[in-house]
Amino acid sequence: MEVIPCPDRDRAVALTARIIETRLRAKPDLVLGLATGRTMEEVYARLVASGVSFARCTTFNLDEYVGLPPDDPNSYASYMRHHLFDHVDIDPARTHLPDGMASDLTAAAADYEARITAAGGIDLQLLGIGEAGHIGFNEPLSALRSRTRDKILTPTTRRQNAGMFGGNEEAVPKRALTMGVGTILDTRELVLLASGAAKAGIVARAVEGPLTARVSASAIQLHTSCKVVLDAEAAAGLEDIDYYRFVCRNEEKWDNCRDLL
Ligand code: GLP
Fold first, then answer.
1. Residue numbers of the domain that contains 203
2. Domain Glucosamine/galactosamine-6-phosphate isomerase spans what residues (predicted)?
3. To test the ligand 1 pocket, which listed residue (9, 13, 34, 36) has its Cβ within 8 A of the most ligand atoms?
4. Distance separating alpha carbons of residues 148 and 156, to the nearest angstrom
């Protein structure tokens, strides 16, 4: 794992967008795993502004609420159209989200896994982190080998996401279809982005704490190509922050990103 501490949110977002843009330019038919949440909105805005082509790119989102149709303004399908898909040259047929409206969620989950496999697997997976330690919607005690399935959302998650539902926690769906922790670990590269003081505690547990199903995000410790991009506030709880800064300063591969570090 590489922890990449940035001075502020803007630069953490810019660095994340730059990594994605670089991968897309190097491999236009990239299979890109996408995430939602407030943290990602500015990443998508920067990708749109970069003008990079998504024409040959295939995308798979981490998760979708159960019971929200794709045209519901709070669905992640709407979120993706609003923040990215409607503003780039991506082929809508190549964009995939789990089908939260399926009458058989188990079958829909298996179909999602099959679609990822048929696409050749995910090259780069973007991740946020929830205050309950989730990646995707893998709430505490999600098996570290879990695959796409439906999960009950914790009260912490429903509270955290209530802002998008007019502040009404009860309006947040109770379930979601999400890639499993195992599905996420099968991707070829992970980039987790976190910003803000509210994430400092859970980031420290995910990065430096024990590997545990209580904090699904701690599973990133098992991945062989994982970057954790943080602003100063989200990095504030890390004990070995000086070491992570030392590594970044000395890694030549970050030389073309010094403006952001
Ligand atoms: C939702 C998504 C997660 C994401 C989280 C972060 O819960 N399902 O994948 O990590 O939001 O949200 P935010 O960026 O708004 O803090």
1. 2-260
2. 11-221
3. 36
4. 21
Residue 100 Cβ contacting ligand 1 at under 6 Å: no
pLDDT (0 to 100) of residue 255: 86
Residue 137 CB less than 6 A away from ligand 1: yes
Q: Whose CA is nearest to atom 3 of ligand 1?
A: 136
Q: Count Cβ atoms below 10 Å from residue 123 Cβ, excluding itself.
A: 19
Domains identified in the chain, total number: 1
Task: Convert the pLDDT of each residue in 63-121 to its tens digit.
Answer: 999 999 999 999 999 999 999 999 999 999 999 999 999 999 999 999 999 999 999 99
CA–CA distance from 125 to each of 54, 106, 160, 255 (Å)?
15, 23, 22, 23
Q: What is the pLDDT of residue 256?
A: 84
CA 165 to each of CA 95, 156, 172: distance values in angstroms, whole numbers, following the listed order: 24, 15, 6
Q: What CATH number has the domain bearing residue 9?
A: 3.40.50.1360
Atom of ligand 1 nearest to the CA of 38: 15
What average pLDDT does this structure show over 15-36?
98
Q: How far is the CA of 252 from the centre of ligand 1 (A)?
A: 31
231 within 8 A of 7, measured Cβ to Cβ: yes
Q: Do the beta carbons of residue 74 and residue 37 sit within 8 Å? A: no
Retrieve residue 72's tokens: 């519901």
Residue nearest to atom 10 of ligand 1 (CA): 128
